[in-house]
Write a structure and sequence with these properties.
Layout: E1 8-9, H1 21-35, H2 46-60, E2 69-73, H3 79-86, E3 90-95, E4 131-132, E5 145-151, H4 160-173, E6 174-189, H5 206-217, H6 231-234, E7 238-239, H7 240-247, H8 253-259, E8 264-267, E9 270-280, H9 295-324, H10 337-357, H11 367-380
Parallel strand pairs: 2-3, 2-5, 3-4, 5-6, 7-8
Antiparallel strand pairs: 1-9, 6-9, 8-9
Helix pairs in contact: 1-2, 2-3, 4-5
């Protein structure tokens, strides 16, 4: 059997490949707890495939072992973070955790306070160190990380230029000898007059992968990417919108099995799927030098630096203003005239009910009882 490549498009046969199955189980362990199954009950899930491929690539490069430093670009709260932490890695998940955006549900601010809340399984204290940062200008040092992973995030960076900046940053923070696993969306078919259906979901082609990820990163793709897929994989294709709507309501294993696989999706005339590429930083490669940049590249770098600096300053001011502001007082209840009239009528009705309820005490037949009661009361007093 041919060994499963580390750079490839997703295929249904990958889920039974002996090279990948142990990592699929490791990633599935957390979700299995949530939906009441066990780690061996693997469903053909493209997200779990991306995370398992990242774990495998890092493991084979010895970057997923105790003491390794690993950064996750746009990592949110995904399972790769906690799987690596349980192995003893120091994991730095990077995302815009403190921004309010459409991605706040998958990159919650609570991750900055207590990441243990987002893991179904325990891991060593202090081994997950979330960092709020824009991926195009990482707030991390040069040449310090044994591994980097990015699964399903780089396609949402808004433009190919931003993707290239993020790829440069990945190359910058990796140690010589380090490895990067990058999973994203790959275009299979689509209209000839449009590259993708939405500027917030970039669909990569072989040419775009090379030009905007591999080349800017300065990293090496040691083996060709395998693009071949089986017919069984294409038979799993689903409508993107329908799938996303139904996926929000999965609570048990049977519900997930009924919806998945989701290996190939289609939307607005486009057919696309997941792809993973594994890149390496050669031992003789150091941090990129700004002095070697062209004047156009240097100007682009300055623009990005200014953009991120302004974004950070605005966010800092917003958070500091919130921190210093006194707690909002609860608004005083607003009672209208009509409400007062209604309350008065209700009070009068209750008073009448009380009078009627106590009327028996004044019946003539109750006089002897009242006489005895008063005499007893006087004696006790």
């Amino acid at each position: 059997m041919t060994e499963l490549p580390l750079s490839k498009t997703i295929d249904i046969e990958d889920f039974v490949a002996p090279e990948l199955v142990p990592y699929l189980r490791e990633i599935n362990e957390q979700e299995a707890i949530r939906i009441g199954s066990n780690a061996d009950e693997i469903v053909f899930d493209s997200k779990q495939w991306e995370h398992a491929c990242a774990l495998r690539a890092l493991d084979e490069a010895q970057a997923a072992s105790a003491g390794s430093w690993v950064a996750g670009i746009g990592a949110g709260v995904e399972g790769t973070i906690f799987a690596l932490a349980r192995r003893g890695c120091l994991v730095f998940p990077i995302d815009r955790y403190l921004h309010r955006s459409v991605w706040s549900d998958v990159a919650p601010a609570g991750m900055m306070i207590d990441p243990t809340r987002f893991s179904q399984l325990p891991y060593p204290r202090g081994h997950v160190i979330p960092v709020h940062s824009n991926a195009i200008r990482l707030n991390l040092p040069d040449c310090q990380f044994d591994g980097v992973f990015s699964s399903g995030s780089i396609e949402h960076f808004g433009s190919l230029d931003n993707v290239a900046e993020a790829a440069r940053e990945i190359g910058r923070i990796l140690k010589p000898g380090g490895v990067a696993s990058i999973a994203t969306e790959f275009r299979l078919e689509g209209p000839v007059d449009r590259p993708w259906f939405d500027d917030n979901v970039i669909l990569f082609t072989p040419e775009l992968l090379e030009r905007y990820i591999v080349e800017p990163s300065g990293l090496t793709l040691r083996a060709p990417i395998r693009f071949e897929q089986s017919e069984r994989t294409f038979e799993t294709r689903q409508n993107l919108v329908d799938f996303l709507q139904r996926a929000q309501n999965i609570h048990i294993l049977e519900e997930k099995r009924a919806l998945y696989p989701n290996l190939v999706l289609y939307h607005d005339g486009f057919l696309f799927c997941s792809i993973v590429i594994t890149l390496y930083k050669d031992q003789n490669t150091g941090a990129s030098s700004s002095g070697s940049q062209s004047s156009d590249a240097a100007r682009a770098t300055d623009r990005v630096d200014d953009l991120v600096a302004r974004e950070n300053a605005d966010l800092a001011r917003e958070l500091e203003s919130f921190q210093r502001s006194p707690p909002a007082a609860l608004p005083a209840p607003q009672i209208q005239i009509g409400d007062l009239q209604h309350l008065q009528a209700e009070n009068d009705r209750l008073q009448q009910e009380l009078v009627r309820a106590n009327a028996w005490k004044h019946w003539r037949i109750m006089r002897p009882v009242r006489f005895v009661y008063r005499r007893l009361k006087r004696r006790r007093g």
